[in-house]
Design a protein that fits this description.
This protein has about 230 residues and is of the alpha/beta class. It folds into 2 domains: about 140 residues, HAD superfamily/HAD-like (Rossmann fold), CATH 3.40.50; about 70 residues, Putative phosphatase, domain 2 (DNA polymerase, domain 1, Orthogonal Bundle), CATH 1.10.150. About 35% of the residues lie in helices and about 10% in strands. The protein contains 9 helices and 8 strands. The strands form 2 sheets. Strands 5-4-1-6-7-8 form a 6-stranded parallel beta sheet, with helices on one face. Strands 2-3 form a two-stranded antiparallel sheet. Strand 4, helix 6 and strand 5 form a beta-alpha-beta unit. The longest helix is centred in the middle third of the chain and has 17 residues. It starts with 11 loop residues before the first strand and ends in a 5-residue tail after the last helix. It catalyses: 2-phosphoglycolate + H2O = glycolate + phosphate. Pfam families: HAD_2 (PF13419).
Length: about 230
Amino acid sequence: MIASNVIENIKFIAFDLDGTLLDSVPDLADAADKTMRHLGFDGVSVEQVTTWIGNGADILIGRALSRSFDIDPELDPALHRQARELFDHYYAAGGHQKSALYADVKTTLAHLYQAGVPMAIVTNKPSQFVPHLLEEHGINTYFVDVIGGDTFPLKKPDPFALHWLMEKHQLAASEMLMVGDSRNDILAAQAASCHSLGLTYGYNYGQPISDSEPDVVCDHFRQLLDVVKLGC
C-alpha cells in the first residue's frame, strides 16, 4: 500500500522500536524458548512469539506460560516472576545477534535527522535493553528522548508517554506523528489526539494494522519521507 496522504506541519516524530525499526522477534523468541525449556515446559516458536509481543516483556512471558494470547488468570505470580527474570537473562546473554534493522530505516532516520526533525523512541520494551540496541545498530544519535515500557507507570496503548513528549517539547497534538506497527501505537496516538502512521510489516497480533485506522498506512519505512513532505 502506498501512503495515501500527506500529513502537514509535523514537528516531532515518535517511533515504536520492535516491529517498526527493528526486526527483533528472532532474539525475543529465542529467549522465550530458552526460558520455557529452563522451567521444564515445551519450547515456543518464532511464529507464536510474533503474535504475543507488543505489550512488554511481562505480558509476553505471561502469554508464553499460558500458551495463549489471553493470559491464564490462574497463572502463579511467583512462576511468572521467575520466568521474567530468566527471560531477561537469556535475552541479554544472546547479545541481540539475530535482530536487524528493517530496510531503509537507517537512511530514512538519517534524512529526518539532517532535516532537523526531532525524534523519540516510545517502546513497550524494557528500558534496560533499548540504549544498547540503538547503539548497536548505529541509530542512537538520532533520538532526543528514549522511552521504554517501564520509564513511566503507564505504557502504550496509554497515551502517557506521548503527552509527556508534547509537554516537554511544547508541541500541539497536531504537530506530532506516532509511527508504529501495532494497534498499541495507533491507539496511543489516537488517545493523545496526535497523528499516526501504521506499518504493515511488523508485529500486530496477526491482524492488519489498517484495522486500527491509522491516519496513514505504509508498506515501506522509506514512505515516511513522503508522508511528512521531506522528499527522498
